[in-house]
Write a structure and sequence with these properties.
With 96 residues, the protein is mainly beta. Helices cover 8% and strands 54% of the residues. It is built from 1 helix and 9 strands, in the order ββββαβββββ. The strands form 2 sheets. A 6-stranded mixed beta sheet has the order 2-1-9-5-6-7, covered by helices on one side. The protein is globular, with a radius of gyration of 12 Å.
């Protein structure tokens, strides 16, 4: 199980979702496939409503992995997201 901490900067709101996604180890770090996260997150009560851009911080950079349109359509691409050792993924939601 992966715990997703959701920081929604659009509304100064924070949430949490717990989803089941496969993880893998590479370079002694824990990773998940962004598409798996998107699929499971958008099926959960913690679903991100649009319009929104969703990203994780990777070092000092924003790694965008999901865009939600106003009509609810989602756009996501190939990306690996680094997970903290305690199986926590911190995501940020911002305005488009």
């Amino acid at each position: 199980m992966l715990t997703v901490l959701i920081y929604d900067h659009r509304y100064s709101d924070h949430g949490i979702a717990e989803i089941f996604v496969p993880t893998f180890r590479a370079d002694s770090a824990l990773w998940v496939d962004a598409r798996d996260v998107v699929d499971q997150l958008q099926l959960s009560p913690g679903k991100v409503d649009g319009p929104a851009k969703v990203y994780v911080m990777r070092g000092g950079w924003k790694q965008y992995f999901l865009r939600v349109e106003a009509d609810g359509r989602t756009l996501s691409g190939l990306a690996n997201l680094k997970v903290e050792e305690n199986s926590v993924l911190k995501i940020n939601v911002d305005y488009v």
